[in-house]
Amino acid sequence: MHTKNTIHCGDALDLLRKVEDESIDLIVCDGPYGVTQNDWDRIPSIQEYNLDLIRRFAPKLKDGGALYLFGKSDCLDFVDYRPFLKLRSRIVWYQPSRLAQGRLNYTNNYDVINYFIKGKRPKCYNLDAIRVAQLVELEHRLRCENVPSVKNGQYGKTKFNEDGKNPGDVWGDIKQLTYKSKELVSREALNTIQKPEKLIERIVLASSNPGDLVLDPFTGVGTCPVVCKRHGRAFLAFEMQPEFVAAAEARIASLDGGQKILEFSYGT
Ligand SMILES: C[S@@+](CC[C@H](N)C(=O)[O-])C[C@H]1O[C@@H](n2cnc3c(N)ncnc32)[C@H](O)[C@@H]1O
Fold this sequence. Notes:
By secondary structure, the protein is α/β, with parallel strands linked by helices. It folds into 2 domains: 6-131 and 166-255, Vaccinia Virus protein VP39 (Rossmann fold, 3-Layer(aba) Sandwich); 132-165, no CATH class. The protein has 7 helices and 8 strands. It has helices spanning 12-17, 46-57, 138-143, 187-192, 197-207, 223-230, 242-255, and strands at 6-9, 24-29, 61-71, 86-94, 110-117, 170-171, 213-216, 234-239. The protein has an 8-stranded mixed beta sheet, with helices on one face. Strand 2 (24-29), helix 2 and strand 3 form a beta-alpha-beta unit. The protein is globular and about 60 Å long. The two termini are 30 Å apart.
């Protein structure tokens, strides 16, 4: 087994072999999408690649453990993942395009985050940790307990929850990073890789508990390890580009009050 709370530099598929079966509580897989010109993203069939990942990840998860697999809308087309994991939600991460330049088709405005679990029931789904503001007017709040159910017309026990509502499966409240984002590690990382901490935070808080072990096989500049460290989760992270490993390590160190991360540049 690899050392925990460390970014391991190398090929994720090789490194994965040494991960003990049934040892992982959550996998956050933000790997190749098969859409950019980066060398690591040139995947002949992203569907075959993702099926292979799912096949390799499944034995590593504990019963009830979760996998969040990122991609574009077609990333699981015609893929039969059912022998390995159960798909619970297909989350749409909606990002309104700033420029929407498409001329021949509708501009793509979302990524998909496929939420799978191993077995029948999730180990955890911490709804209270990820509630979002209820944007309903007072009148509706007051009527909330008097709304008939769509299923049987009976008046239910729907209560207005002051702590907020379930974020649902379309996440439009978390914006992609911009050049001005404080958490941005490098300008080059913006359009190619770096995800907002808030996005990864929602996943980590919902599908793991403090002390759990989170696997981030394609860690990039370390957003998931940063979130794990902040919330008391252990992590195992893999990344094949040494510059990214260095950036991720500096970012993690900065949580302990270490040096602020410097801009870095990298090839594709
Ligand atoms: C989409 S990015 C991940 C970004 C990350 N979530 C973040 O916020 O920084 C995918 C990363 O996977 C890495 N990668 C791609 N294929 C890999 C492989 N086979 N083994 C290890 N790392 C790989 C790339 O170098 C890239 O940094």
